[in-house]
Write a structure and sequence with these properties.
Shape of chain B: globular
Largest sheet of chain B: 6 strands, mixed
Largest interface: A-B, 16 and 24 residues
Number of helices of chain A: 9
Helix content of chain A: over 70%
Strand content of chain A: under 5%
CATH class of the largest domain in chain B: Alpha Beta
Number of domains of chain A: 1
Number of helices of chain B: 8
Oligomer: heterodimer
Strand order of the largest sheet of chain B: 6-7-8-3-9-10
Number of domains of chain B: 2
Order of helices and strands of chain A: HHHHHHHHH
CATH architecture of the largest domain in chain B: 3-Layer(aba) Sandwich
Shape of chain A: globular
Structural class of chain B: alpha/beta
Radius of gyration of chain B: 18 Å
Chain lengths: 267, 255
């Protein structure tokens, strides 16, 4: 009886140990990967063609997704704040809360999550397929460092593109609130805009854009890391794609909390 | 005796408990064409990847012209890689680039960087050399047949006129006629360029067409190595079983 209990306990502890070791291993591998990728962003030669292509792919082609997300989020937020504010006779706060909510939190987070779904998956699938079909090996034999050619342009492009996307998303989100406020909630157009501008501070916008840059880095890093370390075959690439989206989404939410704490509570 | 262009001495490589290479010794003379044969999963590709540095051996030495390059890094590794061209089994063409950019990839960056016009002209010339017309240049790899992709891969491998060319299963997946065309091309190009070639294959027709020397890899070691002319009289039971495709013999066949 005692022996059996010890054996079960040992098995339990061993499984915890294995999980912790696995986590340490992944963290270490990811850190090394990120370090190598970032170092190649700043070291020549630079693959401008690749960088521009990624900027278009990650930034420009994500615009419809981010724009639609922001528009409907802004609109829904206006309705919610109006309904919630009515309990305290504070309906007039709709413009300012929509603006602050969108720029500080919902714009970067929802925009980041939408882009994570779109870009992390496609980057992981593309690089994973390149791994499986030996294209990454071919790059090496052609005297081209895969980190420099594949990882660095994606990291740089996503880190720069996300703030631009989120800024546009902020404007569209505020417009979504404006349209609902004026069209549905009978706000005066001029006073709605004046309220928005009066209450919005530069820090509200810049904090969101800094968050967006971090999210962009996370999205590209997760896509590249999981794709680069993809297993063999279609199943391996499929798993890499799923892992990229899931890990990017979780890291976006976790890092958002840390940055919110830093920007608005710790400061 | 002339220093071999490529030399492997006691090269070992394991993946967890799978001991793929258990001490490979092999010499390829300058300008020679060595073909490594062996069953699936015997470590032929790993041997090639150890030479080119895609896989780092656990033990042993890889020498190029007598110089140890086993652990070459940075600029030294780039210098080594500049001497190689490689045709991959599946072509490994970059899907996102048109054919001419695939072929001229190496010429569009690095020390030997050329203008896009110049690189394109060289790419079209190399495509012509492997039997493809200039109209192929702007196609994308996905638009080409398997045989055409192999030819583009071959054009890419020779574009920078390397001293050493590796061919990983060059005829796998091709019909016998196309396989023969590729074999002829490989032989012609290697002779024409004076390059040193190392090929891995199961295809005995390829072996007889391409090889000057043949090495038989089994159980992680070279079981036999000799001129292609001696292949049929090697007296080696592994070689005999392999070249005649017998199910019975020292090489265990899974049923």
């Amino acid at each position: 009886m005692t022996v059996a209990l010890v054996s079960v306990l040992q098995g339990f502890l061993a499984s915890i140990g294995r999980t912790v070791l696995g986590l340490c291993q992944v963290t270490g591998a990811l850190s090394l990967f990120a370090g190598a990728g970032v170092s190649h962003v700043f070291r020549p030669p630079f693959f401008w063609r690749e960088f521009t292509a990624q900027l278009l792919r990650i930034g420009y082609f994500s615009l419809p997704v981010v724009g639609m997300t922001a528009l409907f989020t802004g609109a829904a937020l206006a309705l919610q704040i109006y309904a919630g504010g009515a309990r305290f006779n504070a309906e007039s706060v709709v413009p300012s809360i929509v603006a602050i909510g969108i720029t500080r939190e919902l714009g970067p987070v929802l925009g980041g999550l939408m882009v994570a779904g779109r870009v992390s998956a496609s980057v992981a699938a593309e690089i994973g397929t390149m791994r499986v079909t030996e294209q990454i090996d071919a790059l090496t034999t052609l005297s081209t460092n895969p980190y420099k050619y594949l990882v660095a342009p994606r990291l740089a492009a996503a880190t720069l593109a996300l703030p631009a996307l989120v800024f546009i998303g902020d404007v569209i989100g505020i417009m979504g609130g404006f349209l609902v406020g004026v069209g549905r909630l009978d706000f005066n157009a001029g006073s709605y805009m004046a309220n928005t501008i009066d209450f919005l501070e530069v820090g509200d916008v810049t904090s969101g854009l800094i968050k967006a840059a971090v999210f962009g880095f996370i999205i590209a890093l997760m896509g590249c890391y999981h794709g680069y370390n993809s297993g063999r075959g279609a199943q391996g690439v499929g798993r890499a794609t799923t892992n990229a989206v899931v890990s990017a989404s979780i890291l976006i939410l976790a890092s958002n909390y840390v940055m919110t704490e830093f920007f608005f509570v710790g400061a | 005796m002339q220093t071999p262009r490529i030399e492997l001495a006691g090269v070992r490589k394991s993946f967890a408990d799978n001991h793929v290479l258990r001490g490979v010794d092999l010499k390829v003379p300058k300008g020679g064409s060595m073909v490594v044969i062996g069953g699936s999963g015997t470590g032929k590709s790993i041997t090639l990847k150890c030479v080119i540095g895609l896989v780092r051996p656990d033990a042993g030495v890889v020498r190029l012209d007598g110089k140890d390059v086993t652990h070459a890094r940075g600029a030294a590794r780039d210098a080594v890689l500049d001497r190689f061209g490689m045709l991959f089994q599946g072509g490994a063409l970059f899907d996102s680039l048109p054919v001419w950019r695939n072929v001229a990839f190496r010429l569009l960056q690095g020390k030997r960087r050329k203008s896009a016009e110049e690189a394109r002209a060289i790419a079209i010339d190399k495509l012509r050399r492997v039997g493809l017309g200039p109209e192929t240049a702007d196609s994308f790899p996905a638009e080409l047949s398997g045989g055409m992709q192999k030819r583009v891969g071959l054009a890419r491998a020779i574009a920078a006129e390397p001293e050493i060319i590796f061919f990983d299963e060059p005829t796998t997946g091709l019909d016998p006629i196309m396989a023969d065309v590729i074999n002829d091309l490989i032989r012609e190009i290697v002779v024409e360029m004076g390059a040193t070639a190392m090929t891995i294959t199961h295809d005995m027709t390829s072996v007889r067409k391409i090889a000057d020397e043949v090495a038989m890899l089994h159980e992680g070691v070279i079981q036999w190595c000799g001129p292609v002319g001696d292949l049929d009289d090697s007296g080696n039971p592994y070689v005999d079983q392999f070249i005649h495709g017998r199910a019975t013999g020292p090489i265990a066949a899974l049923r």
